[in-house]
Every structure is written in structure tokens, then in C-alpha cells.
């Protein structure tokens, strides 16, 4: 299920998107339109990674993001969706925040409440020396990949589910810019 939700202008302060980052008139998605929209995709348990990758790829390709940027964002969202399914309860949703038609922020949302472990890992990645998990470990790389591929623009916070209004949590990251194909 997909829906677009308008977001109040006050919420723009929380996105970290500066006026200078918005596309000018004459550029696809530009033209002075300050519309802030959120594309919400409900994800099915058991296939959340696949659904999240497809929805995000479609939004980024439509905005003109280069293939490398799309691939990096797909890896990040697949890891975050897999983490959500493994460690948290549903429902699961993907939110792609768009400013003037350009995707700028992505949230993988689940119905879980446990943020402490995620916040501790991200804090360590933001402030400490980067580390790699054991070379042959099968787990423990999702947040590290998200952090590295988004150039440190990966965060977690409590949120409200779009459907039903229940409490949930989001693990989010900045999306690559269409003009350069990579990350900001």
C-alpha cells in the first residue's frame, strides 16, 4: 500500500534540507515548489527487504539519481529492512521524504520500541574509530553498512506509525542527490 502525505512546513526544520540544496526553477522537481511530501509504502513481513528496495529504487530513478547512488541506497534499505524483520515486530513501512519532488531522506519504520542498542551502535560509529565485525561473522554489519554508504548520515529515533498511529521506531538515512549521483 502506498500513500502520499503532506507534511507541515514546521517539519522542514527537522529534515536538515537547506534552501540551497533545493533544485532551482528549470530543474526537474524544481520551480520554487516547496511541497514536502512523504511516500509511505507498507511492507509485508517476509518480503520487507524486497518491497523496500523496489519502492526506493523507483523513487530515486524517477528523480534522476545515478545508478551508483541508487545501488548504495538499495543496499542500505535492504539491510535496515532485514534488521527490522529480524529484531522488531511489525508493521513495517518505508517512508521516502521528498522536497520539491526530490527524495532527500528515507526511513525504515517498524513497530518495535527498542532503540537503545541501535543508538549505541550508531553513536559508536559517529564518534569512535570505525571497526569491522569479525571478518567471517554472519551478523553485525547492517548498521555499519548503512553508516558507511550514507557517509555517516544514518540515525534512529522514535516515531509514530502511519497506519494506526501506534508507537514505532525509525532507522533513517540521507538519500543521494540527483545532480551528483552520489551522497551529499
UniProtKB/TrEMBL annotation:
The keyword Iron does not apply. GO terms for molecular function: protein serine/threonine kinase activity. Gene3D superfamilies: Histidine kinase-like ATPase, C-terminal domain (3.30.565.10). It holds the Pfam family HATPase_c_2. The keyword Transferase applies. Keywords: Kinase, Serine/threonine-protein kinase, Transferase. Transmembrane segments: none annotated. InterPro entries: Anti-sigma-factor_SerPK, HATPase_C_sf, HATPase_dom. Residues 1-30 are annotated as: Disordered. Residues 50-150 form the Histidine kinase/HSP90-like ATPase domain. Coiled coil: none annotated. Signal peptide: none annotated. This is Histidine kinase/HSP90-like ATPase domain-containing protein. It comes from Sphaerisporangium rufum.
